Amino acid sequence: MAATSKTATLSLDDKSVEFPVYSGSVGPDVIDIRKLYGATGAFTYDPGFTSTAACESTITYIDGDEGVLLHRGYPIGQLAEKSHYLEVCYLLLYGELPSAAELEDFEFRVTNHTMLHEQMMNFFRGFRRDAHPMAIMTGVVGAMSAFYHDSTDISDPWQREVASIRLIAKMPTIAAWAYKYSIGQPFVYPRNDLDYASNFLRMCFAVPTEDYEVNPILSRAMDRIFTLHADHEQNASTSTVRLASSSGANPFACIAAGIACLWGPAHGGANQACLEMLKEIGTPDRIPEYIARAKDKDDPFRLMGFGHRVYKNHDPRATVMKQSADEVLELLGVENNPILQVAKELEAAALADPYFAEKKLFPNVDFYSGIILEAMGFPTSMFTPIFALSRTVGWISQWKEMLVDPAQKIGRPRQLYTGATIRDYVDVESR
Ligand code: ACO
After folding, report:
1. Which are the catalytic amino acids?
2. 294 C-beta closer than 6 A to ligand 1
3. pTM for this structure?
């Protein structure tokens, strides 16, 4: 962050206060208002943090107006096409693309942490069979702090590193086991001769009586879904991880908090909600009815998979996801899938409608991801767990960055209080 010669002046009552302005390497300047309260006695009011930079970061950059997403400077389209998930994990965690030797070492370290503590199986078995896999993941990841005491001391860089590797390595096993448990099948142990995506697919779909032959096109599509969701700057779940960690909480507790936040339908739950919506629409002739509902102010219905807090032109991840959907469905011989047809026609109808153009609403990453995941054989309840698995590296990278940031403080927003002013307690008989 570089100080600029610019200042911002705020006048309030009879006071005029100047605030420093800083520039990043790219993107909007920020006004440093840390001294605002001391100087004026006033707070800022910014629900949803639409104009607030809560931290300095070097990991991910988004230009929502131009539809740009960069990880450590590399465009997401190039990473999705030329790289793979574990290489992107390395990039996010350590700041640079790895050399061949560094990548080999990183993959070795991740691969050797894929197993779960055997006793964690009992923990899974404590859940009801019909528990949502996200509920299981939130619980199991939080419980990792009880199983891996030796990597919970956040002041020790080595323990932070071990916790990071453990989380990236074990998350596919946890997600796959949450799924297996919910369908009443035995847990499948990880196999370290498989790549990250293939291993996950096998843990989800193999059974003791029959192994699962991993199709390389499907594992590439899976890997691409992981890559496209790896990080996304200061979104709700990442901010949750940062806020939880600002108190000094251990990494497993912080990531569990991120998973809980991701679950909501306005965030990671949107891919499940989107596929359910596409199925509800069912046939292209019903699209106008749903477009009309989305535009109706008196109807709470929104087009799921449409709109984004930051992207106001296009979501670059949606472009790759759409291509992937075409490839996967063709491979599986279901290119005439009726849901894909509804999705394509709904996208075209919405993009041609002035309501969506005026409000800058475009398909987001979740619009097509559900179609691919369903074609691969995943039930809708697994969509958000797969997102959580993919985003774990982003959460961890942001968490690590925050812990070494000298400006970091416990997160403590202020409020505009509009409740009752002081009044005397009244005994129950007199109320
Ligand atoms: N369908 C219809 N109208 C919409 C939609 C939509 N999907 N999204 C936003 N709008 C309208 C709102 O009604 C609002 O209209 P108004 O100004 O007349 O009141 C306007 O567009 C702005 O909407 P906000 O909710 O203020 O925009 P915000 O930036 O806060 O919300 C969000 C972004 C939550 C993603 C929203 O677009 C939405 O709910 N989309 C559907 C859910 C979804 O797909 N979420 C996934 C996000 S991507 C991710 O998490 C990976």
Report:
1. 308, 366
2. yes
3. 0.90
